[in-house]
Amino acid sequence: MRILYFARLREAFGASEELTLPEGISDMEGLVALIRHRGGKWQDELSKPFRVAINSSMAGFDAPVKDGDEVAIFPPITGG
Amino acid sequence: MEVRVQEADFDAGKEMEKIRKRFADAGAIVSFIGLVRDFSDGRKVSGMTLEHYPGMTEKMLRVILEEAGKTWSILDATIIHRVGHLQISDQIVLVLVASPHRQDAFRAAEFIIDLLKTKAPFWKKESTSEGERWVDAKESDDIAASRWIE
């Protein structure tokens, strides 16, 4: 799957990465835990408020994810 | 209905003119223009850079217009949101709503900008006297958006 990062998270992690979902991870909560578990900046940045989207729609942490999805992780929105 | 995300500035008069001539039964056009101001949380601001999530942004702006159309009578509407680097007093966002009657145009325009601030994926990075900083989401914006959901 493709993971996109925006704003503060893009500066910390880069704009995007490709990731193959390991066995046993099937929702956003599991995916975020996997990324956070890398430690360092991943742990730090994902301890601050953030939102997630799957295939360009806002999603909850219980939302299912699968290989082929475009997932986006970003700080709370500040447009307008 | 028109939704645009662009670096270039916009001409609100020209956009209004397009809408005005399109519907003979339009009785009112309400416009909202958001601007870059020179203060934020007690800091002096000298400019800002706006980032967005291409594709999702346009999709969410269309969803917001559709939602507004379910509650108010809207003949036509335009949202233009700028991205990239902006200076003080620059225009950030334009919302235009044309309706048969002013009440619908006023309410729909306010609904659209309130929802945009919490649903459309844009992020502001301000240049301030203390360096650059990502703007934190405001609780007051969540409250403004949530009062429409009742």
Task: Provide a brief overview of the structure.
The complex is a heterodimer of chains A (80) and B (150). Chain A has helices at 8-13, 28-36, 40-45, and strands at 2-5, 16-18, 51-54, 57-59, 70-74. Chain A is an alpha+beta fold and 80 residues long.
What Rg of chain B, in angstroms, do the CA atoms define?
Answer: 16 Å
Provide the spatial order of strands within the biggest beta sheet of chain A: 2-1-5-3-4
- What is the number of domains of chain A? 1
Q: Provide the CATH topology of chain B.
A: Aldehyde Oxidoreductase, domain 3
Q: What string, H for helix and E for strand, traces the elements of chain A in order?
A: EHEHHEEE
Quaternary state of this entry equals: heterodimer
What's the count of strands of chain B? 9
CATH class of chain B: Alpha Beta
- Name of the CATH homologous superfamily of chain B: Molybdopterin biosynthesis MoaE subunit
Largest protein interface, residues of each chain: A-B, 18 and 28 residues
What is the helix content of chain B? 25-40%
Spans of chain A of 5+ residues with little confidence (pLDDT < 50)? none
Name the shape of chain A in a single word.
globular
CATH architecture of chain A: Roll
Structural class of chain A: alpha+beta
The profile of the biggest β sheet of chain A is: 5 strands, mixed
Q: Using the CA coordinates, give the radius of gyration of chain A.
A: 12 Å
The general outline of chain B is globular
Order of helices and strands of chain B: EHEEEHEEEHEEH
The low-pLDDT segments of chain B are none
